[in-house]
Amino acid sequence: MGDFFNSLLYPIELLVAWIMYGFHQAFTSLGLDPASGLAWGLSIIGLVIVMRAAMIPLFVKQINASRKMQMIQPELQKIQKKYKGKTDPESRQAMTQETMALYRQEGTNPFSSCLPILVQSPFFFGLFRVLNGLDEIGAGTKEKIGPITQQVASQAEQATLFGAQLSDTFLGADNTATYVVTIVLIILMSATTFTTQRQLMTKNMPASALDNPFAKQQKLIMYVMPVVFAVSGINFPIGVLLYWFTTNVWSMTQQFYVIRKMPAPGSAAEKALHERLAKRGKPIPGEAERKAAEEAAAAEAAARIGQRTQPKGKKRAKKKGGQGSVTPKTSPTDN
Question: What confidence tens digit (pLDDT) does each residue in 6-62 have?
């Protein structure tokens, strides 16, 4: 099993190594010290930029899928309520079929919102394995990974960032600098994780979509995940923590842009967008259609009122007509 896992991850490790080495060479050509932690740290940031830029279409799909999953929760609850207490196979199958039909109709599913995380995970583990193996490659006890030869690995292993080596971990630290750098990165990593999730929950979801079990579960995750990352972060090398923090910043910035430009209908972000457009004198998306619908509804309501008053008018007309047909009395002088 271990050999299979290693074989599966090796192409990812190779790709990670080449991207890092390419950025390292670029920064070195700009005058940075090739053995400095700054050059290797920027190379890790470059890896994040390349990877996340390639994942932009998946990110847009993720945020749309997450938005739709929130919006269809009332419909999902209706389906669950319909089959509540029914445990027979036919009912369970019918509930599953109706749920899947709703997913197809809305163009979303729970897996879509997790897709970018799943795609990113191999790169995360690939970087972890590359950084974790620098000391062995540098010592000559492990084979090189692409361009990461024994000499390059030894150079990267000795590179320091604020006095801490990029391959150091909190648990294996032997100096104060490593403790400080890892704690700062773990705090920043946890804070950006929380901010990114909170931004999605509070800015890009209508109030109606937040009052359901799925939203409450997401809110719980929003508070739990930073704690999980903080606890697990003490096991990761500083280079991996830097990668994690950088990708969180990318996600937060990218999500901020998408929410600002393409907010969910009925959300606080959509209201803010409409206010900005109104101040600039620009047309509000959907405003013309909304006014046309309101005018059509008003015209229809007026027509209904006219139809209700029509019978009453006819009755009055009939009554008046009857009074006009009465023969007037003949006066004595007429004779």
Answer: 777 788 889 889 999 999 999 999 999 988 889 999 998 998 888 888 878 777 777
Which H/E stretch holds residue 313?
helix 287-324
> If you ran DSSP here, which 8-state letter would residue 146 be given?
T
State the CB neighbour count (10 A cutoff) for residue 86: 11
- Of 66-80, 85-99, 144-158, 172-186, the poorest mean pLDDT is in 66-80
Residue 148: what are its φ and ψ, rounded to 5°? -80, 85
Q: In 3D, which of 261, 258, 204, 252 has the Cα closest to residue 69? A: 204
Question: pLDDT (tens digit, 9 = 90+) per residue, 104-158?
Answer: 887 777 766 666 667 777 877 887 788 878 888 888 888 888 999 999 988 888 8
DSSP state of 145: B
Q: For residues 8 and 14, what is the distance between their CA atoms, to the nearest angstrom?
A: 11
Task: Give yes or no for a contact between 241 and 190, defined as CB atoms under 8 angstroms apart.
Answer: no
Residues 64, 200: contact at Cβ < 8 Å?
A: no
For residue 200, give both structure tokens. Answer: 């999605």
Cα gap 156→131, rounded to integer Å? 9
Greater model confidence, 317 or 175: 175
Query: Is the pLDDT at 296 greater than 90, yes or no?
Result: no
HEC string of 40-73 equals: HHHHHHHHHHHHHHHCHHHHHHHHHHHHHHHHCH
Nearest to 56 by CA among 232, 255, 225: 255
For residues 176-185, b (16+ Cβ closer than 10 Å) or e, as one string? ebbeebbeeb
Q: Do the Cβ atoms of 152 and 17 come closer than 8 Å? A: no
Compute the chain's Rg from CA coordinates.
33
CB atoms within 10 A of CB 245: 23
- Report which of 248, 247, 237 is spatially closest to residue 164, judged by C-alpha positions: 237
Nearest to 106 by CA among 56, 66, 77, 78: 66
